[in-house]
């Protein structure tokens, strides 16, 4: 699926590696690695993204180690 418009978080360092997210397609949230923009993307439903954001805000997710 083409047409995704990716953006970095405003908290990201412009020179650092991070993930980018596209939310402009109503049925799909796309996530990719900023250092490999032509590489694979993770595509999820908007409801899944909302649940992820909620869990982050509520402190229900622990950091990866």
From TrEMBL:
<protein>
    <submittedName>
        <fullName>DUF397 domain-containing protein</fullName>
    </submittedName>
</protein>
<dbReference type="InterPro" id="IPR007278">
    <property type="entry name" value="DUF397"/>
</dbReference>
<feature type="domain" description="DUF397">
    <location>
        <begin position="5"/>
        <end position="55"/>
    </location>
</feature>
<dbReference type="Pfam" id="PF04149">
    <property type="entry name" value="DUF397"/>
</dbReference>
């Amino acid at each position: 699926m083409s047409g995704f418009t990716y953006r970095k978080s405003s908290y990201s360092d412009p020179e650092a590696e991070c993930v980018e997210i596209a939310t402009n397609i109503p049925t799909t949230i796309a996530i990719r690695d900023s250092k490999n923009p032509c590489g694979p993307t993770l595509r999820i439903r908007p409801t899944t993204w909302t649940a992820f954001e909620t869990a982050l805000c509520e402190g229900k997710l622990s950091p990866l180690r």
